[in-house]
Design brief:
CATH superfamily of the largest domain: Lipoprotein localisation LolA/LolB/LppX
Strand content: 35-45%
Strand order of the largest sheet: 7-8-9-10-11-12-13-1-2-3-4-5-6-14
Number of domains: 2
Largest sheet: 14 strands, mixed
CATH architecture of the largest domain: Clam
Shape: globular
Oligomer: single chain
Helix content: 10-25%
Distance between the termini: 76 Å
Number of strands: 14
CATH class of the largest domain: Mainly Beta
Radius of gyration: 23 Å
Length: 279
């Protein structure tokens, strides 16, 4: 009994020392990453974030994914090809099966071909927003795939800070600088947005978007397992949580065979026997 008491008394100073060292280390680290922000301001974070973004013209990869939509769950594989600021092309296949569908998203259109049911959909770009989240357009979709910031939205209102050993950029009512439709005089805004940056690589590690009018609507993305591909860092594992329009989507994607070729093809030919999807 006495030995146990002595051991307990002996271990207490060690635990206190470890705690003090941990606290001191955290404070020192926080001071180090705070200094550039204190010296140069929020503009420093924005400049570094933009400098370290993926700027490749073409992007290709294979992926495996697990999707939960409301209570339905499915796993699938696929390919993705992107021509920056122009087109996103995806194919989908069961875990061990042939291609079951093909999707093409551009700035003004959505095309879907269902090989299992021999039908197709041709719709405007706003159709993808109606199925997922009201704010999800081409610019946002490309940005969250690459782990980049938005390209068409105002950067002047960001507020920089530090959160849990990472840089954090926050903005409310972020204005879209480009009108999505000629006849639409309303400039869309991102109601509320948070971005977390790795203090060493300045790559985005988390994204959070909220709709202030609908607390149940939101987009959350987490980026993991960054790999270097031809001079840039890409998150080979991405976790999505999208809520809006009565839908809840949870998606986990693991990317492989990531490349940035000089060019890529985007085939999408609808067979004559396929019928259009009316709804």
């Amino acid at each position: 009994m006495t030995k146990h008491l002595r051991f307990g008394h002996a271990i207490i100073p060690v635990l206190i020392l470890i705690l003090l060292v941990t606290i001191t280390s955290c404070r020192s680290y926080r001071k180090v990453i705070k200094e550039p922000l204190k010296t140069h301001g929020t503009e420093f974070l924005i400049e570094q974030m933009k400098e370290h973004e993926i700027k490749t013209g073409y992007f290709t990869a294979r992926f495996s994914a697990e999707l939960t939509r409301n209570r339905d769950r499915m796993s699938f594989n696929g390919q993705i090809r992107v021509k920056r600021d122009s087109i996103i092309w995806l194919t989908f296949s069961p875990a061990l099966g042939i291609e079951m569908g093909r999707l093409v998203v551009t700035n003004d259109s959505v095309k879907w071909m269902n090989r299992l049911e021999s039908n197709y959909l041709l719709a405007g770009s706003k159709h993808i927003a109606s199925l997922t989240h009201p704010l999800l357009n081409y610019d946002l979709l490309q940005a969250i795939i690459f782990g980049n910031d938005l390209t068409l939205y105002d950067n002047s209102q960001f507020r920089g800070g530090i959160d849990n050993k990472e840089y954090k950029l926050s903005v409310s009512h972020r204005r879209n600088l480009k009108k999505q439709m000629k006849e639409d005089e309303h400039i869309e805004t991102i109601p509320f947005q948070h971005l977390w940056l790795d203090p060493e690589t300045f790559r985005i590690t988390r994204v959070m978007i909220r709709d202030l009018q609908d607390k149940d609507a939101g987009i959350d993305v987490e980026y993991q397992r960054f790999v270097e591909v031809n001079g840039f860092l890409f998150a080979s594992r991405q976790l999505y949580n999208i809520r809006g329009g009565g839908n809840k989507l949870d998606l986990v994607i693991n990317f492989s065979r990531i490349d940035t070729p000089e060019t890529a093809g985007f085939p999408f030919t609808i067979p004559e026997k396929y019928s259009p999807i009316n709804n």
